[in-house]
Structure formats: C-alpha cells, structure tokens
Amino acid sequence: MVKRYSRRGFLEFIGKSSFALCLANLSCTASRRSISKRPNILLCISDNHSWQHLGCYGDRVVKTPNIDRIANKGVRFTNAYCASPSCTPARAGLLTGQDIWRLEEGGNLWSRLPKKFITYVDLLEQGGYFVGHEGKGWGPGSFEDAGRKRNPAGETFESFEEFLKSNTDNKPWSYWFCSADPHRPYALGSGVASGMDLEKVDVPPYLPDCREVRSDICDYYFEIQRFDRQVGETIRKLEAAGQIENTIIAFFGDNGWQMPRGLANLYDFGTKVPLIISWRGEFAGNRVVSDFVNLNDLAPTFLEFTGQKIPSYMTAKSVKDILLSSKSGRIDKERSYVVIGRERHALCRKNGLGYPGRAIRTDDYLYIRNYEPERWPAGDPPLFGDIDAHMLQYYAPTKEYMMSHKDEAGVKALYEQAFLKRPGEELYDLRKDPYQMNNVASSAEYAKIKNELSAKLERYLKKTGDPRVLGGEIMWDSQNYYLEGDFVGRPRKEAIEKFHLQSEYHYMGK
Question: Would you call 420 helix, strand, or coil by DSSP?
C-alpha cells in the first residue's frame, strides 16, 4: 500500500526526512572525523581481575572511583571475555587479533610468540604511531627467543611521563600500561587493615563462606583499589598533557581472578573480564552494552579507528560501530556468543602436560570440551599447581582452606569441583545455574542443546583452523617453558608441615 500525503503532510515529511538525513550525515561525519583525527590509544590493564569486582559493576565493598568515572563517560561491556584464562595467550590474542590456537606456542603460558605473528602495535607503528608499554606487556615468556628485539607490546618505558616526553615528533601514540595488581601474592590482612568490612563481602557459592576466604577476597580488593589509584594518576597525567580529548581509553582485566575455578579455567571466573572504553566527545557516555566481545576484538578496533586496514588473518572483529552507537543493551545481534580456549598454563603436570579445552559461551549456556579428561585440571596433586599459589610457595588462604577442609560437609563438593578430574564435556544452564556448579552434559533433557552447542563450537574451530579439530600438529605439551624455576616445585616450610608434603616435586626430567 502506498502512503499518500497532503501538501502540508508532504512538507512535514520532507522536513523530517531532511532532519533525519542531516543526523545520518552528522553520524557519518563523526565516524570519518574519528578516523581522520588518528586518536591516541591508552590501555589500562589489570592483572587477574574478574569482571564483577569494580564499583561500576556492582561490587559493594571494593572502591574504584577512577575506573567508575571512565565508565560514566564511556561504554561498559557486561559480556567481555579474554581469549584464554592465562596471561601469556590472553595477551597474545589481544595483540594479534587471533584465536590462541592459531598462534602456535603462543597459546601457552611462559612461552614465546613467533615473530611471524604481527601485532596491532607493529601495524600502528608502521602507520606512523609512537608505541610503548609499561609494566607487564606480552608475557610472561621470552620475546628474545622468538627473534624479537622488544616486547610485542612495544618499547619499554619506566613511566607514562617518560613515554610522552620521548614522543619528540609529536606523533599519535599507543601506550600499554599494565599493573602488577591484583596478581598474587597478596599482603595478608591488607584488606581488613584498610577498613573493609568482612560481613559485606559477597562470597560466590563455589567457594567456602568463611572468615579466611572473606579476608582473602578483601586482600584482593585492596590491590584492585591500588590499581584504581594508578589509573587515576595516569588519567591526570593525560589531562595535564592536554591530550585526553583525542585519546581512546580502554580499561580491562587480562583474565579472571586467582581463586579456585578462576584463573586457568574456562568458567566465567577465569575468562570473563571487565571492559570499559571511552573517548571524550566521541563515544556517548554512561552506556552499558551486553554484546559478546573478546579482548581480541580490540586489535581490529584500534586499527579501524586509526584508519588502517584490518588484516585478513585476524579472526577478531572490530567493535567500532558499537562504540560509535548511542545505544545500550544488545546492539549487534550477531554477537550472541564467544569462543575461548586454553592449553598449558603453569608447569604443574608430569612431563609438562597441559589441560587443553575449548568453550562456547552464550546468554543461556556454557559448553566446555575437555580434550584430555584423564589429566588433572588443577594440576597434579598434591600441589595442584594451576591454582595459585601454584607451588604452595606463598600463602594462598582460599586454596589452602579448601585443601585443609576437603572432607568436611559444605567444602567437600566445592573441593571436588575445583581440584579433581572432570568429564570430557561440561554444560551449564546459566538461567538456573549462573555459578556453573551443576554439569548437565549427561542429562537427556539437555541432549539437544548440548549437540547444538557442540556443533556450533566445532564449526567455529574448523573455520579458524584449530588443529584440535582439524588433525594438525598438537604442539603445546612439548614447547619450551621459559621459567626453569617451575621445573621443580618447592613448597614453603609451613605448607610442607601442614599438608605432609615432600620438599620437592619434579615435573621435568625425573
């Protein structure tokens, strides 16, 4: 049916259409302006930080006013994930814009990232950017053994001020600032000593709710608050330099927290991270976006905003359109899931074996495929080295409480879930089980959804060239591990006495 207009109605239609066209042109102009400006890029990265532990994400105890202000002026993502729940591969995926199974030994902790894998930092530098990093860049591992002259995150600087002063040609720049917080070990009792109230701490149900665990979480919060102050200082330096108006600021954690079922696990507590991105005057502020994104998506995003071509080898997708939108909620309907994986984390199994797995996460389900279920997911007992402290070389209150009370009611089931062996497939109905504690993979009721998710995961892994499904070389168990001190586990004296341990555990060569 053709809609007819009176002369007055026609004029109103033309006026509204012209106004809409004007808005569209303004939007396109803003997009072009964003690219032509060649913005600076500032990354503020926390180390082992789960998504919910910030004031702007709803935590009642931890105080993060500086990061909260970035969220108020920018876009806060509620479904952001790392490429892998392990520092080195997560950072490799972020830098290259590729899934970890495409990066050869770069998929392992304490590894190397082969020189042939180009990073977005390299591409920005080739495009005229001044690039650098402070603190933990790519790694841990050996960039030298990969034939690189510097860390893949860029030249190393002692401070943001040094970096800015070194930019004598006044080039657009990209700076990677990564704190050591809130990585373990923590100062015991630091959270409570700072005034935190143990009674206000929300203990997730996969951990025992006791004073020891609550205090441990507060010590973790203490380090997050210290990181928040570092972020605040960095932003003030940016403002003092008069460059905040032309700088994209991205804050995120590299992977989940160092608690049982956190770091090194494909559950949300190891993979889901906080992610906030702002650009004053360009991105509509105080927005909350639920699209599924991977930290890998930052590489093509930065390239697109700086007017560079996104390489075809990148498996990640730019979020530029989401950032330039004025909307909240789910913006891109195709971003309805994320795929993540892990190979070898700490050297904590005999002969350097890892615990390979892949996972697909949707709004309603988490499906995990464990390729070697006969191995110990938390590392060989009795040290369980994929749960920090990995050699029991320093005090880790939550881990040690669970080990000490493993046979007690209320702890036994939690201990078994975190420390003991798992089946080849795991499936969690997140509508009923948001903390992923009830594996329904063997339930007939969930057979259809399990098969659908398994097939969807398989298609993605094939499309992105994962040798785990294509039958290529499975190299990760045999690659170098560049921290030789981990070849022998030496628990501290108190742990030896408490758990009746040997003084040494040999993982390689004996």
Answer: coil
In a 10 Å sphere around its CB, with 0-12 CB exposed, 13-18 middle and 19+ buried, how is residue 323 labelled?
buried
Inter-residue contact 273 to 255 (CB < 8 Å): yes
Pair 55, 64: CB distance under 8 Å: yes
Host H or E run for residue 367: strand 365-370
**Residue 283 in tokens:** 């991105």
H or E stretch including 163? helix 160-166
CB-CB neighbours of 492 under 10 Å: 15
CATH number of 342-506: 3.30.1120.10
Tell whether omega for the bond before 140 is within 30 degrees of 0, i.e. cis.
yes
The whole-angstrom separation of Cα 107 and Cα 122 is: 20
Amino acid identity for residue 160 in this structure: F
Cβ distance 46 to 182 under 8 Å? yes
Domain range summary for the chain, segments of one domain joined by +: 37-140+147-337, 342-506
Q: Which residues 6+ apart lie within 8 Å of 193 measured at CB?
A: none
Query: Residue 287 is inside which H or E element, if any?
Result: strand 287-289
Q: How far apart are alpha carbons 269 and 259 in whole angstroms?
A: 8
Instruction: Supply the pLDDT for residue 472.
Output: 86
Task: Compute CA 91 distance to the chain's CA centroid, rounded to the nearest angstrom.
Answer: 8
User: Burial, 458: exposed, middle or buried (Cβ in 10 Å; 0-12, 13-18, 19+)?
Assistant: middle
The answer to whether 37-140+147-337 and 342-506 have equal CATH topology is no
Tokens read off for 42: 């500032």
Give 252's strand partners.
45, 275
Look at residue 335 in the predicted model and tell me its pLDDT. Answer: 98
Q: Which of 421, 344, 417 is nearest to 376 (CA)?
A: 421
* Phi-psi sector, 309: left (phi>0), alpha (psi -120 to 50), beta: beta
Q: Which helix (H) or strand (E) holds 213?
A: helix 211-240
Residues 244-271 have a mean pLDDT of 98
Instruction: State pLDDT tens for residues 333-378.
Output: 999 999 999 999 999 999 999 999 999 999 999 999 999 999 999 9
Contact between 299 and 97 under an 8 Å Cβ cutoff? The reply is: yes
Q: What are phi and psi of 251, to 5 degrees?
A: -110, 135
How much is the mean pLDDT over the chain?
93
Q: Residue 350 contacts by C-beta under 8 Å, 6 or more apart in sequence? A: 380, 507
Q: H-type helices in 265-327, by residue range?
A: 268-271, 298-305, 320-324
What is the distance, to the nearest Å, from the Cα of residue 338 to the centroid of all Cα atoms in its chain?
12
CATH 3.10.20.70 fits 37-140+147-337, yes or no: no
- Distance between CA atoms of residues 364 and 176, nearest Å: 34
In this structure, the number of other CB atoms found within 10 A of the CB of residue 316 comes to 23
Three-state SS for 113-129 is: CCCCCCCHHHHHHHCCC
What is the pTM assigned to this prediction? 0.92
The amino acid at 175: Y
